[in-house]
Amino acid sequence: MNPQTEQDTYNRKIIVGLLILGAFIAILNQTLLVTALPHIMADLNIDETKGQWLTTAFMLTNGILIPISAFLIEKFSSRTLVITAMGIFTAGTIVGALAPNFPILLTARIIQAAGAGIMMPLMQTIFLTIFPIEKRGSAMGMVGLVIAFAPAIGPTLSGWIVDSYTWRSLFYIILPIAIIDLLLVTILMKNVTKLRETSLDMFSVILSSLGFGGLLYGFSSAGSDGWLSNTVMISFLVGAISLFFFIMRQMSLKRPMLEFRVFQSWTFSITTFLGMIVFALMIGTETILPLYTQNVRDVTAFDSGLMLLPGAVAMGIMSPIIGRVFDKIGGKGLAIIGFAILLFTTIPFADLNMDTPLPFIVVIYTVRMIGTSMIMMPLTTAGINALPPHLIPHGTAMNNTMRQVGGSIGTAVLISVMSSSAKNASTTNPLNALTHGIDSAFIVAAILALVGFILSFTLKKKPQKQKQLA
Q1: How many whole angstroms separate alpha carbon 162 and alpha carbon 307?
Q2: Helix/strand/coil (H, E, C) string of 99-149?
Q3: What pLDDT does 48 receive?
Q4: Is 165 helix (H, G, I), strand (E, B) or coil?
Q5: 443-448 contacts, C-beta under 8 A, 24 or more apart
Q6: In terms of Cα–Cα distance, which of 365, 383, 378 is closest to 271?
Q7: What is the mean pLDDT of each run of 10 residues along the chain (470 residues)?
Q8: Quick check: 453 and 336 in contact, CB under 8 A?
Q9: Left if phi > 0, otherwise alpha if psi is -120 to 50, otherwise beta: which for 392?
Q10: Per-residue confidence (pLDDT) for residue 6, from 0 to 100
Q11: Shortest CA distance to 70 belongs to which of 392, 444, 358?
Q12: From the CB of residue 332, how many other CB atoms can be counted at a distance below 10 Å?
């Protein structure tokens, strides 16, 4: 089927709408239970360590499934995969709403994450397939809107709901939207991706799961257990060894499950690394700021989530606009300005105290999210534009995997710095000690932003044009 005939068989706007709705509720679930954890812990009689698994397991399952998504996208039609992903996610949501105990609730989160782990790279691959190269920036801007806005409103939404209703309402609210999207996808979704002859190497799946799962679990646990704890060290060891053998195996296979040769492109490599930095800064900040507002300033969970909302809205509004700007000027200038904004908005957070005005925090955070919108999806698009078409599914899978790893590493590093600095603070007041720890974490965040700012100067000026001319 030639591209023109293929184009005539589907309505691009319908496909975009279906995928954005599905991906939005899938990613929203990543942070939806954060504010509700105390209520769930009390209701199901579990401690913090167990409760945290409801978020960690979601992220781990995502990290394990995303690498497999490149194979799935080449093996199965896009229509089949979207229906399957939404079907799995909807099933997990039903199990979560009815879960009588913690093990079943945890199982529900893993089922939800399995659907979400397929949905995200699939959406990116479909968008990059149905949009011409000169419009991919705008398309990926819409993806950026979902990635930024959905997890940011999760804590606010759950804070409001659990203050008024039971935590099960979080699943009941998502369920009808998931069912509607599943029905619409079944009726309206068309096949748009090209299938290739490929087979799944089960040894690669095992190595990938142990590799990415081990590293993600290690980084997720480091913030609470400490970097030198047995759990973390064993996780890192298993993850690193498995990942080494996974990469070696992929390089030797004729049809690898995940194509590491995408890193032969300098543009893809540097944009992916910068994307990891910006995602680490975004997730790390979204984790640490509520600790300051709730534990130091005694702000309620709902109001703490509400403080992050203007930033999410700003990023949601800016992402499509930034996408159109990217189509015209490329990613280099946007990345330089974006990292400069991140750097200058991190510095005030490194000097938080007991009297820092809360509106000032909201304003700085909102400006910071605008800077994030100038980096995240433009760089993803620039990197994937540098790849030939047959590597796009592998590029999107790799990019999503690295972003998950970046978010885990960033959160773990910042939480670890915060905890150790708070313990070693020269004060007997626990609130002052925690504030000192938070300030120390943001100093590390500022250093990361500076690294990103310096590296952004190494980007090429409009990689998508070079790709067109190649």
Answers
A1: 17
A2: CCCHHHHHHHHHHHHHHHHHHHHHHHHHHHHHCCHHHHHHHHHHHHHHHHH
A3: 62
A4: coil
A5: 443/350, 444/413, 444/414, 444/417, 445/281, 445/284, 445/285, 445/346, 445/349, 445/350, 445/414, 446/343, 446/346, 446/347, 446/350, 448/277, 448/280, 448/281, 448/410
A6: 383
A7: 47 86 83 75 78 75 79 86 94 94 92 88 84 81 74 75 84 92 91 76 88 82 77 93 93 84 91 92 83 83 82 85 86 93 95 92 94 89 87 85 79 81 81 90 95 93 45
A8: yes
A9: alpha
A10: 44
A11: 392
A12: 19
- The DSSP annotation for 244-280 comes to HHHHHHHHH-SS-SS-GGGGGSHHHHHHHHHHHHHHH
- Rounded Cα distance between 142 and 223, Å, is 32
For residues 131 and 388, give the distance between their C-alpha atoms in angstroms, rounded to a whole number: 15
- Which one-letter DSSP state was computed for residue 135? G
Could you give the CA distance from residue 369 to residue 104 in angstroms, rounded to a whole number?
36
Those residues whose C-beta lies under 8 Å from the C-beta of residue 450, and which sit 6 or more positions away, are: 343
State the Cα–Cα distance between residues 432 and 235, nearest whole angstrom: 33
Query: Is residue 346 classed exposed, middle or buried when 0-12, 13-18 and 19+ CB atoms within 10 A define those classes?
Result: buried
Both tokens assigned to 105: 């609730």
Which pTM does this prediction carry?
Answer: 0.79
464 token code pair: 């998508």
